[in-house]
Amino acid sequence: MKTIKVYEPKSNRVFSTTYKHLSLLTGIPVATLSNYKSREQKVPEVGYYILKEDTSIETKRLWYAREHFPKEIWVSVKGTEGAYMISNHGRFKRVMKKGEKFLLPYCKKTSGYMCVKVPYNGVYKEHKVCNLVGIHFLGGPYKGYVLRHKNGIKTEDNVFNLHYITIQESNRLNGAKTKALPVVCYDAETFSVRGEYRSVKEAGVNEYVSRQTVLDNCYRKTNREGEHQFRFACTL
What's the topology of domain 181-235? Predict the structure, then answer.
Protein backbone atom coordinates (compact mmCIF):
# COMPACT_ATOMS: atom_id res chain seq x y z
CA MET A 1 0.00 0.00 0.00
CA LYS A 2 1.15 3.52 -0.82
CA THR A 3 3.04 5.37 1.89
CA ILE A 4 1.41 8.52 3.27
CA LYS A 5 2.79 11.34 5.42
CA VAL A 6 1.23 12.36 8.70
CA TYR A 7 1.88 15.59 10.59
CA GLU A 8 2.15 15.84 14.36
CA PRO A 9 1.20 19.47 15.17
CA LYS A 10 2.43 19.44 18.76
CA SER A 11 6.05 19.02 17.65
CA ASN A 12 5.96 20.00 13.95
CA ARG A 13 7.23 16.59 12.88
CA VAL A 14 6.29 14.47 9.88
CA PHE A 15 6.16 10.67 9.89
CA SER A 16 5.62 8.06 7.17
CA THR A 17 2.94 5.40 7.48
CA THR A 18 0.18 3.78 5.38
CA TYR A 19 -3.60 4.00 5.46
CA LYS A 20 -3.69 0.34 6.48
CA HIS A 21 -1.43 0.84 9.48
CA LEU A 22 -3.22 4.04 10.52
CA SER A 23 -6.56 2.29 10.23
CA LEU A 24 -5.36 -0.59 12.42
CA LEU A 25 -3.95 1.89 14.93
CA THR A 26 -7.07 4.04 15.19
CA GLY A 27 -9.90 1.65 14.28
CA ILE A 28 -11.04 4.16 11.64
CA PRO A 29 -11.91 2.86 8.12
CA VAL A 30 -9.54 3.87 5.33
CA ALA A 31 -12.33 5.74 3.53
CA THR A 32 -12.94 7.89 6.61
CA LEU A 33 -9.22 8.57 6.97
CA SER A 34 -9.16 9.67 3.34
CA ASN A 35 -11.96 12.14 4.12
CA TYR A 36 -9.93 13.55 7.00
CA LYS A 37 -7.12 14.16 4.53
CA SER A 38 -9.27 15.85 1.88
CA ARG A 39 -10.92 18.09 4.48
CA GLU A 40 -7.60 18.83 6.22
CA GLN A 41 -9.04 17.68 9.54
CA LYS A 42 -7.11 16.18 12.43
CA VAL A 43 -7.47 12.43 13.04
CA PRO A 44 -8.76 12.66 16.64
CA GLU A 45 -7.58 9.26 17.87
CA VAL A 46 -3.89 10.07 17.24
CA GLY A 47 -3.87 13.87 16.92
CA TYR A 48 -2.24 13.78 13.47
CA TYR A 49 -3.12 15.40 10.15
CA ILE A 50 -2.73 13.40 6.94
CA LEU A 51 -0.71 15.54 4.56
CA LYS A 52 -1.62 16.25 0.98
CA GLU A 53 1.10 16.38 -1.65
CA ASP A 54 0.81 20.18 -1.72
CA THR A 55 0.32 20.94 1.98
CA SER A 56 2.11 24.22 2.59
CA ILE A 57 4.37 25.39 5.40
CA GLU A 58 1.78 28.03 6.30
CA THR A 59 -0.90 25.35 6.68
CA LYS A 60 1.37 23.45 9.04
CA ARG A 61 2.06 26.68 10.93
CA LEU A 62 -1.70 27.23 11.31
CA TRP A 63 -2.19 23.68 12.65
CA TYR A 64 0.77 24.12 14.98
CA ALA A 65 -0.61 27.43 16.32
CA ARG A 66 -4.04 25.88 16.97
CA GLU A 67 -2.68 23.34 19.45
CA HIS A 68 -3.74 23.84 23.04
CA PHE A 69 -1.31 23.12 25.85
CA PRO A 70 -2.45 23.07 29.48
CA LYS A 71 -0.96 25.75 31.72
CA GLU A 72 1.07 27.27 28.88
CA ILE A 73 3.03 30.31 30.04
CA TRP A 74 4.80 32.76 27.72
CA VAL A 75 7.81 34.96 28.54
CA SER A 76 10.09 37.14 26.45
CA VAL A 77 13.18 35.51 24.99
CA LYS A 78 16.09 37.16 26.74
CA GLY A 79 17.54 40.06 24.81
CA THR A 80 14.51 40.56 22.53
CA GLU A 81 12.37 42.83 24.73
CA GLY A 82 9.19 40.95 23.89
CA ALA A 83 9.78 40.73 20.15
CA TYR A 84 10.20 36.96 20.49
CA MET A 85 8.37 34.83 23.05
CA ILE A 86 9.01 31.37 24.43
CA SER A 87 6.52 29.15 26.28
CA ASN A 88 7.08 26.55 28.98
CA HIS A 89 6.01 23.95 26.39
CA GLY A 90 8.92 24.82 24.11
CA ARG A 91 7.00 26.88 21.57
CA PHE A 92 8.20 30.16 20.08
CA LYS A 93 6.49 33.06 18.39
CA ARG A 94 7.49 36.40 16.96
CA VAL A 95 5.44 39.41 18.03
CA MET A 96 4.90 42.00 15.30
CA LYS A 97 2.75 45.12 14.94
CA LYS A 98 0.25 43.25 12.81
CA GLY A 99 0.09 40.18 15.02
CA GLU A 100 2.00 37.08 16.06
CA LYS A 101 3.76 34.42 14.02
CA PHE A 102 4.68 31.02 15.41
CA LEU A 103 8.16 29.73 14.66
CA LEU A 104 8.31 26.10 13.60
CA PRO A 105 10.93 23.98 15.38
CA TYR A 106 12.70 21.14 13.60
CA CYS A 107 14.40 17.93 14.64
CA LYS A 108 18.13 17.62 13.93
CA LYS A 109 18.79 14.21 12.42
CA THR A 110 22.35 14.16 13.72
CA SER A 111 21.43 14.67 17.37
CA GLY A 112 17.70 13.97 17.69
CA TYR A 113 17.13 17.29 19.48
CA MET A 114 14.45 19.80 18.54
CA CYS A 115 15.99 23.10 17.41
CA VAL A 116 14.81 26.57 16.50
CA LYS A 117 16.44 29.66 14.99
CA VAL A 118 15.78 32.65 17.21
CA PRO A 119 17.71 35.65 18.59
CA TYR A 120 18.90 35.11 22.15
CA ASN A 121 20.90 37.74 24.03
CA GLY A 122 21.45 39.64 20.81
CA VAL A 123 22.66 36.71 18.71
CA TYR A 124 20.45 35.10 16.05
CA LYS A 125 21.38 31.47 15.55
CA GLU A 126 20.20 27.88 15.95
CA HIS A 127 19.44 26.81 19.52
CA LYS A 128 18.28 23.57 21.12
CA VAL A 129 14.71 24.11 22.27
CA CYS A 130 15.31 22.28 25.55
CA ASN A 131 18.24 24.54 26.45
CA LEU A 132 16.19 27.71 25.99
CA VAL A 133 13.26 26.27 27.95
CA GLY A 134 15.65 25.36 30.74
CA ILE A 135 17.23 28.83 30.81
CA HIS A 136 13.92 30.71 30.82
CA PHE A 137 11.90 28.49 33.16
CA LEU A 138 14.40 26.58 35.30
CA GLY A 139 17.33 29.00 35.40
CA GLY A 140 20.88 27.98 34.64
CA PRO A 141 22.83 26.57 33.00
CA TYR A 142 24.71 25.61 36.15
CA LYS A 143 28.34 24.53 36.34
CA GLY A 144 28.65 20.78 36.86
CA TYR A 145 25.02 20.12 35.86
CA VAL A 146 23.37 19.00 32.64
CA LEU A 147 19.80 19.34 31.42
CA ARG A 148 17.97 16.02 31.17
CA HIS A 149 14.69 14.86 29.63
CA LYS A 150 12.96 12.95 32.42
CA ASN A 151 11.33 10.41 30.08
CA GLY A 152 14.39 10.07 27.84
CA ILE A 153 12.61 11.47 24.77
CA LYS A 154 14.58 14.40 23.35
CA THR A 155 11.68 15.78 21.34
CA GLU A 156 9.46 16.44 24.38
CA ASP A 157 10.77 19.80 25.52
CA ASN A 158 8.07 21.02 27.90
CA VAL A 159 9.44 22.27 31.22
CA PHE A 160 7.67 19.48 33.12
CA ASN A 161 9.88 16.96 31.31
CA LEU A 162 13.16 18.77 32.02
CA HIS A 163 15.40 19.00 35.04
CA TYR A 164 19.04 19.63 35.89
CA ILE A 165 21.14 16.80 37.30
CA THR A 166 24.82 16.49 38.04
CA ILE A 167 27.14 15.15 35.37
CA GLN A 168 27.90 12.18 37.63
CA GLU A 169 24.19 11.40 38.03
CA SER A 170 23.69 11.70 34.27
CA ASN A 171 26.46 9.20 33.63
CA ARG A 172 25.00 6.83 36.21
CA LEU A 173 21.49 7.04 34.78
CA ASN A 174 22.68 6.57 31.21
CA GLY A 175 24.68 3.54 32.26
CA ALA A 176 21.77 2.07 34.16
CA LYS A 177 19.41 2.73 31.26
CA THR A 178 21.74 0.98 28.85
CA LYS A 179 21.93 -2.13 31.02
CA ALA A 180 18.25 -2.22 32.03
CA LEU A 181 16.57 -1.94 28.65
CA PRO A 182 17.54 -4.59 26.12
CA VAL A 183 16.12 -3.96 22.65
CA VAL A 184 14.69 -6.27 20.00
CA CYS A 185 14.79 -5.33 16.31
CA TYR A 186 12.26 -7.11 14.07
CA ASP A 187 10.90 -7.03 10.54
CA ALA A 188 7.61 -5.10 10.41
CA GLU A 189 6.06 -7.37 7.77
CA THR A 190 7.07 -10.85 8.88
CA PHE A 191 7.70 -10.10 12.58
CA SER A 192 10.89 -12.13 12.35
CA VAL A 193 13.62 -11.01 14.75
CA ARG A 194 16.58 -9.30 13.07
CA GLY A 195 18.63 -8.83 16.21
CA GLU A 196 18.59 -8.70 20.00
CA TYR A 197 20.71 -6.07 21.70
CA ARG A 198 21.73 -5.27 25.26
CA SER A 199 20.96 -1.57 24.95
CA VAL A 200 19.47 1.20 22.85
CA LYS A 201 22.96 2.35 21.93
CA GLU A 202 24.04 -1.11 20.79
CA ALA A 203 20.88 -1.46 18.68
CA GLY A 204 21.56 1.87 16.98
CA VAL A 205 25.19 1.04 16.24
CA ASN A 206 24.39 -2.37 14.75
CA GLU A 207 21.34 -1.25 12.76
CA TYR A 208 23.00 1.98 11.51
CA VAL A 209 20.48 4.41 13.02
CA SER A 210 20.78 6.99 15.79
CA ARG A 211 20.15 6.20 19.44
CA GLN A 212 17.25 8.66 19.40
CA THR A 213 15.66 6.88 16.42
CA VAL A 214 15.69 3.63 18.40
CA LEU A 215 14.30 5.35 21.51
CA ASP A 216 11.48 7.09 19.63
CA ASN A 217 10.48 3.84 17.96
CA CYS A 218 10.63 1.88 21.23
CA TYR A 219 8.36 4.47 22.84
CA ARG A 220 6.12 4.29 19.73
CA LYS A 221 6.67 7.94 18.91
CA THR A 222 7.51 6.91 15.34
CA ASN A 223 6.26 4.13 13.11
CA ARG A 224 9.15 3.57 10.63
CA GLU A 225 6.67 2.14 8.12
CA GLY A 226 8.41 -0.09 5.61
CA GLU A 227 11.49 -0.41 7.81
CA HIS A 228 12.46 -2.66 10.68
CA GLN A 229 11.01 -1.83 14.09
CA PHE A 230 12.51 -1.54 17.56
CA ARG A 231 10.89 -2.53 20.85
CA PHE A 232 12.10 -2.88 24.41
CA ALA A 233 12.34 -6.62 25.05
CA CYS A 234 10.27 -6.30 28.22
CA THR A 235 7.25 -5.06 26.19
CA LEU A 236 7.11 -8.04 23.82
Answer: Arc Repressor Mutant, subunit A (1.10.10)
